[in-house]
Amino acid sequence: MACYRFGEFIVSPRRRALARQNVELALIPRYFDLLVYLIEHRHEAVHRRDIFDHVWQDVVVSDSALSQAIRTIRRTLGDDSREPRFIRTISRHGYRFVFDGVVEEPDDVALSGARGLSRAAPESTVLATQPPEVADAFGPLLARITESTNDDESQREAAEMLHALGTAEALRRLGTRPHHAFARALLRDTRWDLPNAGEVAILGGPSPVSVSVSLIEIRLRRAARIVAARWANASIGGGVAGLAGGIVGGLLLAVAPGSSAPLTVVPVLAGIGCGCGAAGGAAVGAGLSVAEAVMRSKRTLALVAGASVMGMLAGAAVQWLARMTLEALVGVHVPTGGAFEGLIVGATAGLGYALATSWVVGGLAAPRGRERARVAAMTALTCGLGALALSAAGRPLVGGTIHAIATASQGAQAALTPLGRIIGEPDFGPITRALIGMGEGIFFGAGLAFGLTRRPS
Questions:
Q1: Minimal CA–CA distance to 389: which of 423, 353, 440?
Q2: Do the beta carbons of residue 116 and residue 21 sit within 8 Å?
Q3: Cα(244)–Cα(246) distance, rounded to whole angstroms?
Q4: Within 10 A of 457 (CB to CB), how many other CB atoms are there?
Q5: Is residue 324's pLDDT more than 70?
Q6: N or C: which end of the chain has fewer CB within 10 A?
Q7: What b-and-e string marks burial along 221-233, b requiring 16 or more CB atoms within 10 Å of the CB?
Q8: DSSP 6
Q9: Which residues are 63's β-sheet partners?
Q10: CA–CA separation, 444 vs 244, rounded Å?
């Protein structure tokens, strides 16, 4: 594997090391991958889309994430965006590595004299040895991140530079000056992309609620377009899953022994399944998308909580609408699934999705190929188990609700009693109810995950 030497720098892809005069410089893994990718393609201007597909191939991030990565790499290399020596911005296209003297050589040769690479001292240590006017660099940077709550690129750059100077000292000097909650949230958000940044605690610090709200606003604002797209895709995925489940259920009902249901029951059940799946997918998908965009620590807990809360709200709304409609139109009152069922389905979907995407760092999961199928399978499994538990406990899901309505309505043809005969039960018994419920959960979980992880073009 080749090693790259340019100016006073050496980049070793095999050792995943960036060194300057035998001193290793820290970069987070994705930023190192981006630097290597630009060097490897230095003879061309690399489009932003190609960078996202290569460096962030398994996650979706906002456009600002690339700008932040380039800014961090430039600062590490001592580059200037106005007069670039290494990385030039190509307007409305992407970036190009423009240093004209890159030398490729075997990795062992390039680093033969740098066996004992030492890490660069934190800039805060270097700062202490500088003249007072340099050591007081905190002041202008703190003024910049507290002058407004816009979260523009200049403020993010100032926050990153404060981390380089010393996170703890920056927080101490920040104190409780105006807009300090926003500034703390910005420091908390940028710390994840700087390997030497210190902790920015929310609990135990000043105004924890205001800081949390500001942090949520920052992350949602920067990921709003991605969250909206994932929410729509999750709704579509849930709708398609419900449609498929309705078609399968309708066909089985039409051909079941002793069934009087005509083939016209297929599109009816397909329509009901599609509507229920789309509503559930929209709700649970929204909870998952927002939680994934907002939380970088406690990710599993956040995903489960977000999906379960939104599932509960959707279940309560559907239950209220179904009961009001049935009582007003046909005078039928039957038990229907509601808030509790939505909470369990949402929680199990969130748990399966979180476990299957636990490798995600710094973005929203967008696996491909077999990995995407694995995520869908895990989500389908946990959803199916949750639905099985609900059905075993006598809690009605979509199939159970349809059967209850059909049984209570005179002349209805959608009663699911014939499905029980397929497996040997004389009626719509507990085994039939459990199998149908588990099937609903599996279809929904798979459709939700496939829709949620669809990578935008």
A1: 440
A2: no
A3: 5
A4: 4
A5: yes
A6: C
A7: ebbeebbebbbbb
A8: E
A9: none
A10: 10
Determine whether 358 is exposed, middle or buried from the number of CB atoms within 10 Å of its CB (0-12, 13-18, 19+).
exposed
Which residues, in sequence order, are CB contacts of 187 under 8 Å at separation 6+? 145, 159, 162, 163, 167, 170, 171, 174, 200
CA 263 – CA 217 distance, rounded (Å): 51
Between strands 23-25 and 118-119, the pairing is: parallel
Q: What is the CA radius of gyration of the chain?
A: 28
Tokens coding 340: 């509790």
14-21: which pairs have CB atoms within 8 A and are 24 or more residues apart? Answer: 14/107, 15/107, 15/111, 17/111, 17/117, 18/76, 19/111, 19/114, 19/117, 20/120
Is pLDDT at 393 greater than 70 in this prediction? yes
Q: What average pLDDT does range 403-427 have in this prediction?
A: 76
* Whole-number Cα distances in Å, 163 to 87, 168, 217: 23, 8, 21
Per-residue pLDDT at 127: 46
Residues 6+ apart with CB under 8 A from 419: 249, 252, 253, 256, 428, 432, 436
Rounded Cα distance, 241 and 260, in Å: 26
Secondary structure class of 15 (helix, strand, coil): coil
118 burial level (CB within 10 Å; 0-12, 13-18, 19+): exposed
Q: For 418-427, which contacts have Cβ atoms below 8 Å and span 24 or more sequence positions?
A: 418/253, 418/256, 418/257, 418/258, 418/259, 418/261, 419/249, 419/252, 419/253, 419/256, 421/256, 421/257, 421/258, 422/252, 422/256, 422/257
| Token duo for residue 348 | 């199990």
**Token pair of 378, please?**
């895990």
- Which residue do the tokens 């609903």 mark? 440
E strand intervals along 48-140:
59-60, 87-90, 94-97, 103-106, 118-119
Digit-coded pLDDT (tens) for 311-323: 999 999 988 887 7
* Least confident segment among 122-131, 238-247, 381-390, 447-456: 122-131
Coil, strand or helix at 3: strand
CA distance linking residue 313 with residue 342, whole number of Å: 7
Q: How far apart are alpha carbons 238 and 274 in whole angstroms?
A: 7
> How far, in Å, CA of 127 to CA of 193, rounded?
21
Give the mean pLDDT of 268-288. Answer: 93
